[in-house]
Amino acid sequence: MPRTVPVIANESPGGFIAAALWMAQVAAIGNWVLGSGSNGVPRFRGYATSAQSLSDNVWTSLNLDTEQYDSDNGHSTSTNTSRYTVQVAGTYRVAASVGYVANVTNNRAIRLAVNGNAVVGSFVKTTPANATGSTGLVTTADIPCVVGDYIEAMGNQNSGAALNTVAASDVACSLTVAWISG
């Protein structure tokens, strides 16, 4: 069963909230904001330690084979490794990066997607750096989600042939997801 955001008990003016209920609610809010693991705010960060080949001019979900943290088990390193599946409804701040190996032909791009559909305003594109340097891109968006939505970073390049991403470095593909409001 998915977790929900805790709420503080309230009472009509002149009424009273039992001390035990008040303390339980304060503790729940404190654990939510300051907690760790599955007691805290939902958060995830994953990245790629293996290069991925991206076909020419095809939007491709970026695989994340390593987790730095995953408070709600919304990501798998063995099945649908590109996806973070939302476990708690709310608005999430999402950031993603992609790195492409050196190649000077045409463009490189990144975007975010929810349930396979592009997130409006998340598309970023550039021309390659140069013949010897990798090209890195970052995008971010605040995205409202319901339980079961999945978030992905997607890459695209049009060099005329397949092109690898960079892995296991500061330019590696990554996805960071953090709950910011209900």
Q: Which terms summarize this structure?
A:
single chain, 182 residues, mainly beta, 6-stranded antiparallel beta sheet, 13 strands, elongated
Roughly what is the average pLDDT, rounded to an integer?
A: 90
Distance between the termini: 17 Å
Given as residue ranges, the uncertain stretches (5+ residues, pLDDT < 50) are none
Tell me, briefly, the overall form.
elongated
Q: How many helical stretches?
A: 1
Helices and strands, in order, run as: HEEEEEEEEEEEEE
Instruction: Bin the helical content.
Output: under 10%
Total E-strand runs = 13
Based on CA atoms alone, the radius of gyration comes out at 20 Å
Class inferred from helices and paired strands:
mainly beta
Determine the strand fraction and express it as a percent band.
35-45%
Largest sheet: 6 strands, antiparallel
